[in-house]
Amino acid sequence: MNFLEYNKDEKLSFNYKKSCGLWLIVVALIIFAATVIGGKQIINMSVFSFGYVAAFLSINTNKKVLNRFSDGPSSKFQNKMSLYAVIFLFILMFLLGGPFFATENWRLIWLGALMATALHFFLYYFVHGKSMIYLAILCAVNVGVGYIFPDIPLTVTAYIDAAIKLGFGIYLFFFSKPTQQNNLHL
């Protein structure tokens, strides 16, 4: 685990819960808007893509926003885990949703993207704490139901996904406090 700069004796501080909450709130609103607008792609790809990139640049790469909504620094390990979580997200999106672009099966493309997002939240446990595990499980179950029951409209799955993210975002932004975890024993 040296490549991650993990120190088993280190107490991880989860100081970026508010910025994570803000990100989840904005992404939930983007998913909601893209689903309302819909069209052939069910969840409007242009609305989602533009909103996602604009939000990412405005929140996740904006030092002023991150500093304002953080309660202290992250460790090198947490910074690397955050980067690897994003890389993992795009790999999973390629694997789970990518194969269906050739046939334009928008339901499976979006289910793949939403499942990839759900699974990548597990890695964020090391950055934001236990709430990420619960978020990952709820989102994955929601998408799993969408895979198992094809008669459920994708819009229902998308609205539930947005509601889950919005709920966790509100909790993290307004109510969650910075916490510490120790003895992860990776």
From TrEMBL:
Give yes or no: UniProt keyword Glycoprotein. no
Q: Which domain of life is it from?
A: Bacteria
| One Pfam family linked to the record | DUF6609
Q: Which UniProt keywords apply?
A: Membrane, Transmembrane, Transmembrane helix
| InterPro entries associated with the record | DUF6609
Record bears the keyword Membrane:
yes
Q: Transmembrane stretches, by residue range? A: 20-37, 43-60, 81-102, 108-126, 133-150, 156-175
> What is the designated name of this protein?
Uncharacterized protein
Q: Which organism is it from?
A: Lancefieldella parvula (strain ATCC 33793 / DSM 20469 / CCUG 32760 / JCM 10300 / KCTC 3663 / VPI 0546 / 1246)
Record lineage: Bacteria, Bacillati, Actinomycetota, Coriobacteriia, Coriobacteriales
